[in-house]
């Protein structure tokens, strides 16, 4: 039997247990109540932020081009909601000049974008491919257009040398009448950055670029080129070297407000009239407005192509932004999206992609010689000249510069004095030495950077491949064999012959003939596997 003391102890323990369990239930109820309050407040905050921020779908898939495939940036929800009268436009002579609304979101919708992890080591990559790029929609991109021009460091006023009878100043000097034969002293002075400068920049003869200067353009088109445009896209074909590629995925806003100009020589112009939808009335092929250049200054078609590529600011004196695309490329992303991604978002005035493999000028020169891109002696002379000036192989000491070699088939830039000077001196190097502009890019860039705080946005080449699709040059396409016609009728496999039976007069022994022994069949490499320019 339990004593009275034992019963008292048992009652005390029971009371303590009940009290402890009761406290735990109360604590759990309090915690659940607190969690519910936090959930309600959090949902309210998230909904409030979502109502003020655009939704964005990141383009994180790796895009591989097939015959009819193009990279499509996913549609992003627009900043423009409600009445379309919020768009502020001014009517120009030929185009609606769009001014972006004054307000910008507090954060950029692509801030959280990141590249997917690289493939596991050991997986073979069959060559350069496009990589993911986070674009805004064209409407959203326009919102981010800067209200004011990029600040041109030091240089504020740039003018150009005019000379009706240019002459060579040095024995054996390269260059041309079109470029004005700048002397070595002129070359040195062009890199001495001052507030006001006058430099050689092509078109030294005549009253204005395109009028009796060489690279002459019809008067009615010159008048059109003098008009103001916020953005233009430009390309060129000389010597029938390429086929016109129609841009795709271009917004209606861009189609209405951004002109696409294609420069051609007379030879290419004649070819277009016989092989495309071009007519003299429209002077267009698709989106491209065809501009015929007469009296081109060089016999080398590729060197003639460097004139519009590097001197667009001289041909279009009243343009704010330009996108240059080599004719071997098809533009597959809207120009507003490209400008926002590579200029406005990075606060840059000029953007160009790095070469996908090479980043050293000396290595690039050897590659050009091996591929017979230009006369080897001329390449050696140019590289030795730069070497004597102090050019050294690329090393990490040049960081944050990550490459000395561009993939120069696209140039995205704002037309301001410092970028105009850069493309002028870059053109002068191309005019004096070889037309391989990858060899002279770093020299022109670094000599300017020695004097002023200015940089170029050299983005990844895989990002370039996201907004342009590379096609073959015309001569490669013309020499391609037509695809083998497929037969709907499937023939049965022939029965194997027994050993010793003759096939075409020869015995089948099951062994390789002496002439076949040790041979391997190699996969034929497509002509498009190498970048050809």
From TrEMBL:
List residues of the TOD1/MUCI70 glycosyltransferase-like domain.
158-473
Record keywords: Membrane, Transmembrane, Transmembrane helix
Lineage, uppermost ranks = Eukaryota, Viridiplantae, Streptophyta, Embryophyta, Tracheophyta
> Which segments carry the region annotation Disordered?
78-101, 482-533
Official protein name in the record: TOD1/MUCI70 glycosyltransferase-like domain-containing protein
Which InterPro entries does this UniProt record tie to the protein?
TOD1_MUCI70, TOD1_MUCI70_glycTrfase_dom
Transmembrane portions of the chain: 26-46
Q: Does the keyword Membrane apply?
A: yes
Q: Where is the composition biased (Polar residues)?
A: 78-92
Q: Does the keyword Cell inner membrane apply?
A: no
């Amino acid at each position: 039997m339990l004593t009275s003391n034992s019963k008292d102890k048992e009652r005390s323990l029971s009371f303590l247990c009940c009290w402890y369990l009761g406290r735990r239930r109360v604590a759990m109820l309090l915690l659940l109540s607190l969690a519910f309050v936090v959930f309600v407040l959090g949902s309210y905050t998230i909904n409030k932020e979502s109502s003020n921020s655009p939704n964005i779908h990141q383009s994180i898939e790796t895009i591989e081009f097939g015959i009819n495939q193009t990279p499509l940036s996913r549609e992003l929800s627009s900043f423009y909601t409600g009445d379309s009268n919020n768009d502020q436009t001014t009517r120009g002579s030929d185009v609606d000049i769009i001014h972006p609304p004054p307000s910008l979101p507090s954060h950029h919708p692509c801030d959280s974008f990141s590249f997917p992890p690289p493939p596991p080591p050991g997986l073979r990559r069959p060559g350069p491919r496009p990589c993911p790029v986070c674009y805004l929609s064209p409407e959203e991109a326009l919102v981010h257009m800067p209200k004011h021009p990029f600040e041109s460091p030091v240089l504020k006023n740039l003018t150009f040398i005019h000379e009706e009878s240019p002459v060579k100043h040095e024995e054996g000097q390269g260059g041309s009448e079109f470029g004005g034969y700048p002397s070595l002293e002129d070359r040195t002075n062009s890199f001495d950055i001052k507030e006001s400068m006058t430099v050689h920049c092509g078109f030294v003869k005549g009253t204005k670029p395109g009028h009796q200067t060489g690279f002459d353009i019809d008067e009615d088109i010159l008048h059109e080129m003098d008009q103001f445009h916020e953005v233009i896209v430009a390309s060129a074909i000389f010597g029938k070297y390429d086929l016109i590629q129609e841009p795709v995925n271009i917004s209606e806003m861009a189609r209405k407000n951004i002109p696409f100009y294609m420069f051609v020589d007379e030879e290419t112009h004649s070819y277009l009239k016989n092989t495309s939808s071009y007519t003299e009335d429209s002077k267009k092929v698709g989106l491209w407005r065809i501009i015929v250049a007469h009296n081109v200054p060089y016999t080398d078609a590729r060197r003639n192509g460097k004139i519009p590529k590097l001197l667009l600011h001289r041909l279009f004196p009243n343009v704010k932004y330009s996108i240059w695309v080599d004719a071997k490329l098809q533009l597959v992303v809207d120009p507003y999206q490209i400008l926002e991604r590579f200029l406005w978002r990075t606060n840059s005035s000029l953007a160009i992609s790095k070469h996908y493999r090479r980043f050293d000028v000396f290595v690039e020169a050897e590659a050009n010689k091996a591929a017979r891109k230009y006369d080897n002696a001329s390449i050696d002379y140019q590289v030795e000249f730069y070497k004597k000036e102090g050019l050294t192989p690329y090393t990490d000491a040049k960081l944050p510069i990550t490459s000395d070699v561009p993939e120069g088939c696209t140039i995205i830039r704002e037309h301001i004095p410092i970028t105009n000077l850069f493309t002028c001196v870059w053109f002068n190097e191309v005019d004096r030495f070889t037309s391989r502009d990858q060899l002279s890019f770093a020299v022109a860039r670094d000599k300017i950077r020695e004097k002023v705080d200015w940089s170029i946005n050299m983005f990844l080449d895989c990002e370039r491949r996201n907004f342009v699709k590379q096609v073959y040059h015309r001569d490669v396409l013309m020499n391609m064999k037509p695809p083998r016609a497929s037969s709907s009728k499937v023939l049965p496999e022939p029965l194997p012959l027994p050993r010793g039976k003759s096939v075409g007069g020869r015995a089948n022994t099951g062994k390789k003939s002496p002439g076949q022994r040790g041979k391997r069949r190699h996969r034929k490499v497509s002509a498009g596997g190498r970048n050809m320019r």
